[in-house]
Amino acid sequence: MVRHLIFKRKEPGQERARQTVESIIEATAQLLDQDENASTNRIAERAGVSIGSLYQYFPNATAILAAMAERERVRVSEGIRRALEELDPEDPEPAIRAAIRALLEAFDKRQRVRRKILLSLMPVVGREAQAQFFEAAVDEISEAVRSAGGDGPFRPLSRTATLVLGSAIMGAVRTAVMTETSDLADPEFEDELVLLAMGFVTAPRGGPAGRP
């Protein structure tokens, strides 16, 4: 049932077809950003295409939102990966900050649109929609922090520690996007996430004192 709801009918092969899909996705983003109803009829009208052309590529509005979410996931992950290419195990803070900044900047732009994508998809695919939207990007940062440990001055992170760190970053960003209570462009928000990540690798080796 879920796969049927979000399945894209066909991939655009020619340039004209790709432009049609781009117009449909951009029209959907505009409607969501303007807090308007993003029905397939409204989307087709805004995109300047026939409803038949829209249905050639997307069976419903949910499929368009799913395609938008996947695009965002890929784009954010690529930006973070580029930032982490400069990671120095002896001094990981600059690269980790750049990666976190890439994550925040990606979600800060058209934040209302991203929030509505998540809210619209959750009734269909539940938490999986949120996971796909956030986890791949956060995993890049968490894995980079984990790899910064080892023989250098920072402690190595176990998979459990990496999971905790990733969940903490993901939870903070997701809450900010979903509730609109925090400004992702606020330098303090970025600083706190960097402190969180660096705190994991600079914590004493062997875990908290007094643990059995």
Automatic annotation (TrEMBL):
SUPFAM superfamilies: Homeodomain-like (SSF46689)
Gene Ontology terms, MF aspect: DNA-binding transcription factor activity; transcription cis-regulatory region binding
Name the UniProt record assigns to this protein: Transcriptional regulator, TetR family
Residue ranges constituting the HTH tetR-type domain according to the UniProt record: 18-76
Claim: Signal is one of the keywords in the record: no
Keywords on record: DNA-binding, Transcription, Transcription regulation
Source organism superkingdom: Bacteria
DNA-binding span(s): 39-58
